[in-house]
Amino acid sequence: MRKSQRALYDLFVEAEKNTREVSRDDILTATKWKGQTIDTYLAKGQLSDYLAEVRPGIFEVSKVSHLTAEEFARRFSQSKHRRGLGHNFKSRLAKALVRKSKDNMMLALELYNRPSLENRLDGFVLLFCTSWEQLLKAELIERDGKESIYRKSSRQTKIRETVSLRKCLERIFPANDKRRKNLERITDFRDQAVHLLMPETQGVLSRLFQAGALNYVEKFEDLTEQRFLELNATGLLTLVGELRTPTVAMLKSAYGEIGKEIFDLIKTTQDEIMQESDWRFAVPIDVKVVFARKGQGDELKLVANTDEGLEGLRRAIIVNKPVDHNRTHPYKASDLITEINRKLEEMYDVQKLEQILPARDKKTGKPAFNSYCLQAILFKLKWRKANNEFHYASTNPVYHKYSDQAVTIIIKKITSHPQYLSKARSDYSESRRRR
Question: Known Pfam families for this protein (predicted)?
């Protein structure tokens, strides 16, 4: 454990136990870091799990005292490759609400996708609305301050009441926003019709639920700057349900006179879906799935109506198709260097390699493509400025990976022009001196 990490841990524990704020200068004094170091950690959110900025350069500390020094050091080291959820939030309450919101939405999706549970619709609606309410209150706290989520109450109680989900919707979404209408309708189910949410309603209601889940992911990722789900878990967003509409007779046979109310709920919802005609309110079911190539990645196109031809294609809903970047970009930097050296040794003799590779292996003395060579090439080709067919950067955790095309292009560049790599290294070295 580094001395700076131990000093940081001791500072945080002392501040948390005494409910004392810490400043940027306190951290610098304790750790002996340079100002640029702490600024980088703060900017990248690497301390966001423990610090909440209450004023410029002044922080509240939390969630440290229950950790051992070794646990803190391990988590801090890992944070260099991972940003804590809510890293860009200043309020500790907002951070906590976002974490709870994500957990509740995950639980809602998992519950809905368990068809053996007859009460999954009831549970989904309750958890779904709770999750949205927590997320929107976190946004209001960050935007308008902590007091904005509380309301006046005539009841004499020590626990203050917060505003409702409907009030949150009014403050964040315009009145005609389809996402707001979707949420208002599902909130109606929670408040007024939970007794009608029988399994037979899932065919039409699942279309609203699916749209609501997609709307949530969009809002969550916009607020937190992080993925809601990892690529291998995106199947959770597919809410499966029976699409057939039951008859009044079938419903009355199963539930008595209330069967007519259940049928009316289904019919009213179907009519509203037709009237709104927007996937943000309810996903369409008469769709044709088309995979198309656009730019650097695959996309999934959902055509609103299959009989609309080109006009339908023009109005297609675009949903990003999850791509497994472990397949498209399998090489970490060290793996990329190893693969390039392996191929160069297979393709060329030592004499050729001595002409094109200015670096030498420290152990064998043979010409080699090393880490500095790679950094020089990346600086020259500027691949790391964006995700592309050669390079992919993950945001949480932070890492860079490269494709087979990157291997091919780098080898082609350095073998086609004997001085290419030497010139790239020289340019890269010069750029570093200018910083």
Answer: DUF3644, EC042_2821
Instruction: Report the DSSP pairing between strands 297-303 and 317-320.
Output: antiparallel
Question: Rounded to an integer, what distance in angstroms lies between the CA atom of residue 177 and that of residue 169?
Answer: 10
**Statement to judge: residues 100 and 10 lie in one domain:** no
Identify whether residues 122 and 266 lie together within a single domain: yes
| Residue that terminates a domain, selected from 284, 309, 338 | 284
287 neighbors 302 (Cβ within 8 angstroms): yes
Q: Distance between CA atoms of 186 and 209, rounded to whole angstroms?
A: 8
Global pTM value: 0.58
Residue with tokens 């793996």: 335
Domain identity same for 278 and 290: no
Question: Does 141 share its domain with 208?
Answer: yes
Q: Are residues 141 and 54 in the same domain?
A: no
Tens digits of per-residue pLDDT, 373-384? 999 999 999 998
User: Do residue 227 and residue 294 come from a single domain?
Assistant: no
- Per-residue model confidence (pLDDT) at position 66: 86
Q: What is the 3-state secondary structure (H, E, C) of the chain?
A: CCHHHHHHHHHHHHHHHCCCCEEHHHHHHHHCCCHHHHHHHHHCCCCCCCEEEEECCEEEECCCCCCCHHHHHHHHHHHHHCCCCCCCCCCHHHHHHHHHHHHHHHHHHHHHCCCCCCCHHHHHHHHHHHHHHHHHHHHHHHHHCHHHHECCCCCCCCCCCECCHHHHHHHHCCCCCHHHHHHHHHHHHHHHCHHHCCHHHHHHHHHHHHHHHHHHHHHHHHHHCCCCCCHHHHHHHCCCCCCCCCCHHHHHHHHCCHHHHHHHHHHHHHHHHHHHCCCCCCCCCCCEEEEEEECCEEEEEEECCHHHHHHHHHCCEEEECCCCHHHHCCECHHHHHHHHHHHHHHHCCHHHHHHHCCCECCCCCCECCCHHHHHHHHHHHCHHHCCCCCEEEEECCEEEEECHHHHHHHHHHHHHCCCHHHHHHHHHHHHHHHC
Neighbouring residues of 134: CB distance < 8 A, sequence distance ≥ 6: 97, 98, 100, 101, 104
- Report residue 358: phi and psi, to 5°: -75, -20
Structure confidence by residue, pLDDT tens digits, 142-169 = 999 889 999 887 677 777 889 999 999 9
Amino acid at 288: K
- Quote the domain boundaries for residue 315: 286-322
